[in-house]
Amino acid sequence: MSDDNLYTNKYINFQFSRVVSSDKTISHVLVTATDITEQVELEKALKVAKGQNEQQLTLLSTLIHSNMDLIDLFIKNSHIAFKDINNILKNTAKTHKQYIDKANQIFSIIHKFKGDASALNLDQFVELAHQFEDQVNTLLEKSTLTGNDFLSLTIQLNALITHTENCESLVEKLRGLTANADTQESKTPQPIKRFQWDHLETLATTIANKQNKSVELIHSGLNDYDFSEEFLSIINTLSTQLIRNAISHGIETSSQRRAKSKQPAGLINIRLTKRACGQFEYSFQDDGNGLDIESIRKQAITKGILTKERSLQLDDRAIVGLIFSPSLSTAETVDDISGRGIGMYSIKELITKAGGKISVGFKPNVGTTFTIRLPAELMTQTAAA
Fold first, then answer.
1. CA distance 121 to 2
2. Sequence-distant (≥ 6) Cβ neighbours of residue 299 within 8 angstroms
3. pLDDT tens-digit profile of 230-261?
4. Cβ atoms within 10 A of the Cβ of 210, count?
5. What is the pLDDT of residue 336?
6. Helix H or strand E segment including 217
């Protein structure tokens, strides 16, 4: 016990030696006790440091090959997301429904964060976010919730904040190595301009490979405008989430597509156009299965979103609208890509917050189209707006 009456851990090494008498019998056993606490603690610290260094090297390698403007935006949006989660955690709730709403709000934010990290191949962030989702999902499965149940989320949040700060530090060091006269920052906030969108094609290929599928992604209009930070962030997140959703739920395997007389590779087409009224129209189309109305209906009943009687009273359009409900997913298993049932809910939340509208069209075995209209004001807002 230490001087302040607090217990401390000690590691003791015992060595035993036998004392043999003249008649070859053991007369005594000598015990030597050595305090090896410092040695054990040092080994632990070295092991932790080694793991951290390996993570740093992996992250550094990813950052070197990344679009640094998108990395900057990811870091900025991450801090905003963490602040929003922290504020939600501080909000008081009294009823079970209020606690569920609180959990779903956090779920939506962290799922968006995971999608953005995935698009940039930031696997360590994806893993931490997936663990965070596991914790939130555990809360949602409880029959009763209290404020104390949310304390576990603060640990997950702190881990994400720490990792983001480490990432930010590495980015600053990289900039220091590549600094030149052209990198001086302007005092006037400027809109982000003309990004390359290669990361979306990489994301689609990566997800497709994981699911033994083949996908071709094409896009038009994304390079035709000068994006503000907010508009870029929205378009990037929508594309990321919808790509993940389309490949997981819509696009079939090559063998399944051949059986339907389709091309082996699924096609995803993203288009951004400016309408005469000034609004921007974002269209996301895939040529997969289309939506399974009966599967959505069944899952809505299973999750308690609808009663069986009520579900039979709804037309197909109303059933399609249920895909934006939290916790509803038609995926059979949960992985780091899909199955949480929060992806479409997260998309709807993002669009609503931006003042936009979304509509869904589909044909069985032909494909699904998401059409999103966003206000023109988003395009002109700068990072300081």
1. 47
2. 328, 329, 330
3. 888 899 999 999 999 999 888 999 999 999 99
4. 13
5. 52
6. strand 215-220
**CB contact at 8 A, 113 and 78:** yes
Task: Give the count of alpha carbons within 13 A of 190, CB side only.
Answer: 9
pLDDT greater than 60 at residue 189:
no
Residue partners of 296: CB distance under 8 A and separation at least 6: 319, 320, 322, 323, 328, 330
Tell me if residue 308 falls in helix, strand or coil: helix
- Cβ count near 107 (within 10 Å): 24
Residues 6+ apart with CB under 8 A from 134: none
User: Which of 39-48, 58-67, 249-258 shows the highest mean pLDDT?
Assistant: 249-258
Q: How many distinct helices (H) and strands (E) make up the chain? A: 13, 7
Query: How far is residue 373's CA from residue 286's CA, in Å, rounded to a whole number?
Result: 18
pLDDT value at residue 196: 74
CB 132 within 8 A of CB 110: yes
pLDDT at 26 over 90: no
Specify the DSSP class assigned to residue 264. S
**Structure-token pair, residue 364:** 């069985």
pLDDT for 179 equals: 59
Domains, in order of start, for the chain: 10-65 (no CATH), 66-177 (1.20.120.160), 198-292+330-380 (3.30.565.10)
Query: Which residue in the block uniquely carries the two structure tokens 């974002």?
Result: 282
pLDDT tens-digit readout, 122-160: 888 899 999 999 999 899 888 888 889 999 899 999 999
Say which residue the tokens 């149940």 belong to: 149
Picking from 194, 68, 53, the residue whose alpha carbon sits closest to that of residue 120 is 68
Q: pTM for the complete prediction?
A: 0.72
Q: Give me the pLDDT at residue 380, please.
A: 60
CA atoms within 13 A on the CB side of 158: 5
Give the pair of three-digit tokens for residue 113: 């964060």
> Using an 8 Å Cβ cutoff, are 220 and 272 in contact?
yes
Question: Per-residue pLDDT for 271 more than 90?
Answer: yes
Residues 263, 214: Cα–Cα separation, whole Å: 10
